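testing teh design pipeline on a random one, pls ignore if ur not involved
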């Protein structure tokens, strides 16, 4: 499938999209409507923290929303995932609590093979930001088909823009 407004596919049609990433500190799984209450709690309790996170420079998100609006957002992310036009993962701690989110989408310029990535963690789990960044950066380089990944670097993280194998 192709990304909306693009003639190029975001990932090849034969690419098996990873269903999860598991580390000792957290697990990523596709974000969906089933996460609504926990996702809503995670980001609404951490709006200032998320806005201060590298990669969220314009302040347009997070913004005030109702739980119903959030559910619509989660449905859109799940639809994008199913259509292979973008991939959003919820970040769960070992106890299953939603502690963040990772977004993997085409960049605004829709350059072939290039992914734009953003992630956030809730304020009370801020210590996970750099480990999440490092784990996602390595995962994107090892398991995804992107030639370039644009992911705002973290202080103390493993690097900035990452290149990945094709």
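output:
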């Amino acid at each position: 499938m192709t990304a909306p407004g693009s003639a190029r596919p975001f990932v090849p049609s034969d690419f098996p999209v990873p269903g999860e990433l598991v580390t000792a500190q957290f697990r990523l799984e596709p974000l969906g409507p089933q996460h609504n209450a926990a996702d809503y709690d995670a980001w609404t309790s951490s709006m200032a923290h998320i806005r201060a996170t590298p990669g969220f420079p314009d302040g347009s998100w997070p913004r005030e929303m109702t739980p119903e609006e959030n559910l619509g957002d989660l449905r859109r992310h799940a639809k994008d995932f199913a259509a292979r036009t973008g991939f959003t993962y919820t970040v769960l701690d070992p106890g299953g609590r939603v502690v963040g989110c990772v977004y993997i989408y085409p960049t605004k310029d829709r350059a072939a093979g290039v992914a734009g990535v953003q992630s956030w963690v809730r304020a009370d789990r801020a210590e996970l930001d750099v480990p999440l960044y490092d784990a996602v950066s390595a995962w994107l380089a090892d398991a995804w088909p992107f030639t370039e990944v644009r992911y705002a670097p973290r202080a103390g993280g493993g690097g900035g823009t990452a290149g990945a194998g094709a």
